[in-house]
Design a protein that fits this description.
With about 450 residues, the protein is of the alpha+beta class. It is about 35% helix and about 25% strand. It has 4 domains: about 1-35; about 35-295, DD-peptidase/beta-lactamase superfamily (Beta-lactamase); about 305-395, Peptidoglycan synthesis regulatory factor (PBP3), Domain 2 (Sandwich); about 410-455. It has helices at about 1-15, 25-35, 65-80, 90-95, 115-125, 125-135, 140-155, 180-190, 190-200, 280-295, 395-405, 410-440, 450-455, and strands spanning about 40-45, 50-55, 85, 110-115, 200-205, 215, 235-245, 245-255, 260-270, 270, 280, 300-305, 310-315, 325-330, 330-335, 345-350, 360, 365-375, 380-385. It starts with a helix and ends with a helix.
Length: about 450
């Protein structure tokens, strides 16, 4: 009855006129109605990075064995031959003695390929696989391996994550956020070997020099069809984690009908949520709930296209117009509630980015400012806005405008007055000089040669 009641509330919110708040705000309200349990949650589109649900997504928390996603990234970036054989050092086993951590039964001196160590790392979450791989990649230089883990975080812009070990045992200096964990997962899924391994619900490790072949099972029970509470048929892979500090954790991916999502649940409780006498892993429950809601209620639509006029700005020096119209730089798609029509979407120029004017010439497609796409008054996307046409510069308009600008400048006016006064003074001085010169010469008679002889 409780689940039916929640479903009816959600349906009413999504499909009725009451659904008048913005998409993200509405999703937050729905997230609350779903009664999710984890302290940190994130559901994000793997297709366009749009966030659907977020709760404490930027909070730093212990990653537990989700750390192994980053460990696998460093291995895959630096080991090109996954069939290379590794001899397991005894030190990589002994360092885990007394930790009570997740182990895969790997023996000192056992010879295992890099690929099979990755399977043990990611499927059964074996900590000795993590120590062995981190020892192998850089020839025993564990510090370099850890530095590479943090370099991956830096490269991906995951500024709120830091690593000091490859397996995920609790350490106050090892932490991630849900947002960063989603970024790690998306990047890792770009490696075919990683995608293949985490997508296995089980795997048979081949026989080695010390052990017979053995079957291992994925700790991600969302992929186990025999556990109905957790099973989600859309899940394609993931990684789990659990420590006393981190709680229950899982990062996973799911796909349906061309839609792809990444879900992160961190610091989740483990208790009997439905009073059936059994404790439940709430990280699995929350992730399944978010996936199933999104696949049922969200669709991708064009929220803006390049033919839509979204505003205008004044243009100077143009040949035949005083304004230039603006359109989105490209057709932008967004995830909105099923049934949303274009009338519910609005493109609003971001005032701080809009110039007072632009100067001709302007090329069609030139970025002028930015805008945000609003759904029911709430922003769901930010886009570039461009000039919708070519604008030529008018020569005479430019000259006239330039002259007008110059003459309207008070500094120029003062300079012009000074120049005029100076010219007047110079002309006055020149005129006085001419008069003085004339006075000096008028008492002298100018005689020709014959007149001079007569006087003589």
């Amino acid at each position: 009855m409780k689940k039916l009641f929640v479903f009816l509330i959600i349906t009413a919110v999504v499909f009725s006129s009451v659904f008048s708040v913005g998409a993200n705000a509405a999703y937050d309200d729905i997230m609350k109605s779903l009664e999710l349990y984890s302290d940190c949650l994130l559901l994000v589109s793997a297709d366009n990075d749009e966030v659907i649900f977020a709760k404490n997504a930027g909070k730093q928390t212990s990653p537990a064995s989700l750390t192994k996603v980053v460990t696998a990234i460093v291995v895959l970036e630096n080991c090109k031959n996954l069939e290379a054989t590794v001899t397991v050092p005894e030190s990589c086993i002994r360092e885990l003695d007394g930790t009570g951590s997740s182990l895969g039964g790997i023996q000192p001196g056992e010879q295992i390929t890099v690929y099979n160590l990755l399977c043990s790392l990611l499927i059964q979450s074996a900590n000795e696989a993590a120590t062995t791989l981190s020892d192998y990649v850089f020839g025993g230089d564990r510090d370099k391996f850890i530095a590479e883990m943090n370099a991956v975080a830096e490269k991906l812009g995951c500024e709120n994550s830091h690593f000091v070990n490859p397996h995920g045992l609790d350490d106050e200096n090892q932490y991630v956020t849900a947002s960063d964990m989603a970024a790690f997962m998306k990047y890792a899924m770009g490696f075919p070997a990683f995608e293949e391994i985490v997508g296995k619900s089980s795997y048979t490790l081949p026989a080695t020099n010390l052990q017979e072949e053995r079957k291992i099972h994925n700790t991600n029970k969302m992929m186990n069809s025999s556990i109905s509470d957790y099973y989600c048929k859309y899940v394609k892979g993931g990684k789990t984690g659990s420590t006393s500090t981190a709680g229950k954790c899982v990062v996973s991916t799911a796909s349906k009908d061309g839609y792809n999502y990444i879900a992160v649940a961190l610091d989740s409780p483990f208790y009997d949520v439905d009073n059936d006498g059994y404790d439940e892993n709430c990280a699995f429950l929350d992730s399944k709930e978010m996936y199933e809601w999104a696949f049922k209620n969200i669709e991708l639509v064009a929220v803006s296209d390049t033919t839509r006029i979204v505003g205008q700005v004044p243009v100077k020096y143009a040949k035949a117009t005083d304004y230039i119209t603006l359109t989105p730089a490209e057709t932008v798609y967004g995830l909105v509630p099923v049934g949303t029509d274009s009338g519910s979407l609005y493109v609003e120029l971001i005032e701080d980015t809009v110039p007072e004017f632009v100067k001709a010439p302007v090329e069609k497609g030139e970025v002028i400012c930015k805008a945000r796409v609003l759904y029911a008054g709430e922003p769901i996307k930010e886009i570039d806005v461009v000039a919708s046409m070519d604008i030529e510069r008018g020569f005479f308009v430019f000259i006239g405008s330039t002259a007008k600008t110059i003459f309207s400048n008070w500094i120029f006016r003062i300079a012009a007055i000074v120049i005029v006064v100076a010219l007047a003074v110079l002309l006055f001085i020149r005129h006085r000089k001419k008069k003085a010169d004339a006075a000096d010469t008028r008492d002298y008679r100018i005689l020709n040669y014959n007149d001079f002889m007569k006087l003589k």
